[in-house]
Amino acid sequence: MKHYLEKIYPNEKNEYCSLLKNDLENERQRFVITANPEILMMSEKDDELEKMLLDEKTSLVPDGISVVKAAKKLDIPVKERITGVEIAEYLIKELNNLGKSLYLFGATNEVIGALAKKITAEYPNIKLLGCCDGYIDDKDRIFEDIARLKPDVCLVAMGVPLQEKLIYRHLSSFDKGIFVGVGGSFDVLSGTKKRAPKFFIKCNLEWLYRIAKEPSRLKRFYNNNVKFVFKIKKEK
Ligand code: UDP
C-alpha cells in the first residue's frame, strides 16, 4: 500500500483546488482518482487498476479518513480528506465562474435529469455539453461522443472501479479536460440523497452515517475498509 499512499496528494484541499483551477485556466488534462480503501484494496488483485493508480497521468487524492490515517501510520504526511463530492462541487462552481464546459455521465436517468436541471438553473454560465445515465449498455460509445465534445470537465459517477476504468481507456482521446470518478456524488448533488450532516463529517464519521442509512453497505465496508486497516497495521 505504501507506494500508493506516497503518490497521494499530501496538502490541504484548498491547495488542490487551486491546482484544478490552474488546469482549467490553462486547458491542461488531469485524471483525478479519489483514492479510498475500496479502490486501493481492489488494486491488489487487479493489474489494470494497479497500473492506473501508479501511472503518472493519474492524480490521487485521499478519499476517506482511513486513508489519511494509514498514510500517517506509515510516516507519509497526508493532511486531510478530499472527497469526490467536494471536488465535483468545487469544479461546478469554478466552471460557472470561468464560463467553461461540462459533461455528466453516470447515475440513474432520474438523478442525472435532476442534476442537469439544477446545474442549468443555478449555474447559468456553465456550458452543459451533455449528460447520460450510467446504465446505458455501450458506455465506450458515449465516451467517444464525449471525446468529440471536448468538455473542460467530465464527471463520471458509476462507482469504483467501473468509472475509473472507463476514463482510463479513453484518456488518450483527449488533449485537455479534468476527469473525475465521483461515485455516488450525483445522487447527493441532484438533491436525491443527503450527504451526512456536518457533525458526522467533522468528526470523521461519514462512513458510519452511510452504513446506518444503507445497511447493505456493511459488507462492502468490511471487505474494504476493515481489511484495509488490518493490512496497514501489518505493513507498519
Ligand atoms: N451507477 C451507474 N451505473 C452502474 C452502477 C452504478 O451509474 O452500472 C451509479 C449509481 O446510480 C450511483 C453510483 O453509480 O449513483 C455509485 O454510487 P455509490 O454510492 O455506490 O458510490 P460510492 O460513493 O460509494 O463510491
What does it look like?
The protein has about 240 residues and is α/β, with parallel strands linked by helices. The chain has 13 helices and six strands. A six-stranded parallel sheet has the order 2-1-6-5-3-4, with helices on both faces. The longest helix is centred in the last third of the chain and has 19 residues. The mean pLDDT is about 95. Bound molecules: uridine-5'-diphosphate. The site of uridine-5'-diphosphate has 13 residues, from helix 10.
Task: Quickly describe the structure.
The protein has helices at residues 2-5, 13-25, 37-43, 47-54, 65-73, 84-98, 109-122, 139-149, 162-170, 185-189, 198-202, 206-213, 217-235, and strands spanning 29-35, 58-62, 101-106, 127-132, 153-157, 177-181. It is of the alpha/beta class and 236 residues long.
Give the overall average pLDDT. Answer: 94
The proportion of residues forming helix, as a percent range, comes to 40-55%
Q: What top-tier CATH class fits best?
A: Alpha Beta
| CATH fold assignment | Rossmann fold
Compute the number of helices. 13
Strand content: 5-15%
Shape: globular
Structural class by helix and strand composition: alpha/beta
List keywords for this structure.
236 residues, alpha/beta, single chain, binds uridine-5'-diphosphate, Rossmann fold
Topology of helices and strands:
Layout: H1 2-5, H2 13-25, E1 29-35, H3 37-43, H4 47-54, E2 58-62, H5 65-73, H6 84-98, E3 101-106, H7 109-122, E4 127-132, H8 139-149, E5 153-157, H9 162-170, E6 177-181, H10 185-189, H11 198-202, H12 206-213, H13 217-235
Parallel strand pairs: 1-2, 1-6, 3-4, 3-5, 5-6
Helix pairs in contact: 2-6, 3-4, 3-13
The protein binds uridine-5'-diphosphate.
